[in-house]
From TrEMBL, chains A, B:
Alphabetical keyword list: Amino-acid biosynthesis, Cytoplasm, NADP, Oxidoreductase, Proline biosynthesis
The protein's annotated pathway: Amino-acid biosynthesis; L-proline biosynthesis; L-glutamate 5-semialdehyde from L-glutamate: step 2/2
Function: Catalyzes the NADPH-dependent reduction of L-glutamate 5-phosphate into L-glutamate 5-semialdehyde and phosphate. The product spontaneously undergoes cyclization to form 1-pyrroline-5-carboxylate.
Record's protein name: Gamma-glutamyl phosphate reductase
Start and end residues of each Aldehyde dehydrogenase domain: 5-282
Sequence similarity: Belongs to the gamma-glutamyl phosphate reductase family.
Enzyme Commission numbers on file: 1.2.1.41
Any one Gene Ontology molecular-function term assigned to this protein's record: glutamate-5-semialdehyde dehydrogenase activity
Enzyme class: oxidoreductase
Subcellular location(s) of the protein: Cytoplasm
Amino acid sequence: MSFSIADAAQQAKKAARQVANLNAEQKNQLLVDIAEALSVNTPSILAANEKDLAAGKENNLDAAMLDRLALDPSRIQGIADAVVEIAGQVDPVGNISSIQRMPSGIQVGKMRIPLGVIAMIYESRPNVTIDAAALCLKAGNAVILRGGKEALHSNLALAECIKSALAKHNIDPAAVVVIPDTDRAVMNELMTLNESIDLIIPRGGEGLIRFVSENSRIPVIQHFKGVCHLYIDSDADQVKGLNILKNGKTQRTGVCNSLETLVVHKDVAESFLPKAAAMLAEHNTVIHACENSIGYFSGAQAATVDDWHAEYLAMEIAVRVVDDFEQAIEHIEEYSSGHTEVIVSQDYSKTQEFIRRINSAVVMANASSRFSDGGQLGLGAEIGISTSKLHAYGPMGAESLTTEKFIVMGDGEVRS
Amino acid sequence: MSFSIADAAQQAKKAARQVANLNAEQKNQLLVDIAEALSVNTPSILAANEKDLAAGKENNLDAAMLDRLALDPSRIQGIADAVVEIAGQVDPVGNISSIQRMPSGIQVGKMRIPLGVIAMIYESRPNVTIDAAALCLKAGNAVILRGGKEALHSNLALAECIKSALAKHNIDPAAVVVIPDTDRAVMNELMTLNESIDLIIPRGGEGLIRFVSENSRIPVIQHFKGVCHLYIDSDADQVKGLNILKNGKTQRTGVCNSLETLVVHKDVAESFLPKAAAMLAEHNTVIHACENSIGYFSGAQAATVDDWHAEYLAMEIAVRVVDDFEQAIEHIEEYSSGHTEVIVSQDYSKTQEFIRRINSAVVMANASSRFSDGGQLGLGAEIGISTSKLHAYGPMGAESLTTEKFIVMGDGEVRS
């Protein structure tokens, strides 16, 4: 019998009602049991993963991709630990925000509730299967998971662990669907099921995200890229500035919260850029510099407009000197991807104005862009980072997988 | 020179930055000046409206449509008064929610910010032009307005009032675009401009909303229909129940918060339904009743599945008797449009459970569904009602036209 995504989505919608009604303790116990199933079933997960790895080698996947795909006992334990950590977080469902009494006499508040059914579309990392399922369940949602075909055996083995925990708690197995068919047609059909599915979160390369955004009839959380800016103001503490530059550019280059452009006020170019150049040279950083900064860097290339837009994801940075604070704001507004921007300044008013005026998802004063991450910002586990403003903006934790309804308590009032 | 929606949207995006940076007082003064311009320019607005009405009569628009289209001095004053009221509301932008200190030392909060550029697509009521512009500006957004072709002259005359107020405050006129071309091609192109426009709100018939939802690459706030349920529990105070039924069904039938289905617990069918039947008969209400309730109504038709789904928007109601509380929940979950549902019961636990379990946008205990409205729920003016859960759910006021960014205040912290 072939798999029908329309049927699975409809069953998930029904199961979502059951999951929405679990209380915090039931959901947390379910998560702990999923974690335990992962430990118990480590041998069968590894056996399935072996199949994927063997097929991957046969299909000449590159080393980085094979590494993302690979599981071992410690990675499985890490996945299980993350689920236990999610179980320990505050329940996002059921909170009521301040209830107000209206002139009519009715009392009006808002209660946080699950979204319903969430579909995740992702590429080769099998840990996403468990992370996403755990966060969606924590927020009271059903979830449909469509991973990459390279990881299918691993994902199905992980799904068995979830299924056994659902069964133990008498929860409809349709609450977590791991799509057993990685055919593109299934994904295309999934994106039309707006009667059953409330949200799609694509995780992976820009091509995947753009494809889903342009073809889905279901709302999509988009995360295109992170072109993060660091602005060193004329009133910067340069020691802080240099540390923040070093941390943001060199700690990890392949992540979206790493720095891509350094913007420097002209009054401190002469004092700051030589130190920046020396530090970046130590890390063999490729420099793309504007005409007013290129003289400070040996071997720098002249920056073009493409550099202001670039997400290098490499030991590579664009550098621009600006005339004043206003020009720094303009540069960032023009080229920002809406992810994370940082000002380094000791001037109170300028930090306040930067924070107020720059409308990226995360705006910082005197801190490293590397803090732009769900865990570091206090959200716990993260299901993605939104760079579009609707529904969620920035790192998304369990609360971003919920919404709020209005609740009204009356005593027989009618409208006059 | 012909109108280019792509250019207009790009200019609106630029203007949005300026509007986002206006403070509360500047925005409120702008709104007051728009209201004043409406009063001053009443003669020219009426002259433009005359043209639309004449064309409408020539094109055989029906009386209801001509009435929606028509302006007179008191309607214009009403529109102006609504703008002044919006000016008086609390500013939704700039609020910072509780700032927490993280283990790393950084302080993390969230600040409310405008969405950017909002497009409204609506039908014949010219008041929407001003209401929508005022709410979008209040929330710090630029706005693109595309009204129906029947109201084009009126809308352009209203736009002049906005333009004069923007000019007085030196605000980029691109902040409010009234599209001067009601060609379908312009709307189709608008829906592709996801680089410039952040949100589309269609207001009008189901056909319009469905068309926009299925064709837009920009997120859409959907409001399909309101199939509102009233459940009379076995522990209901029947006087309250009857008042709430009367208010919900008979006060205004053409609105989405009117009642469409009455669900009654079997234990009180015999005591409640005769009173309900008498009251509904006084209002000449057409009844579609289930087999267990049809005997209480003279001249009732047998209800079909279509009746459970129906939004009558008329003096017409579906009636169902259920065996118990659980079956009432099931019926509502199955047929709800996600708008508004009401329980009437004196039993504390059942009201709490109803409010917790029914995940419609507005859930009420012992109050009339007619309160499901932005003004009545304390939001002030309303830009629409969302029956989809993403971003906004239920009546939307100015705050629904904003989002939140993360703000981080550090003192040189870097990530370890």
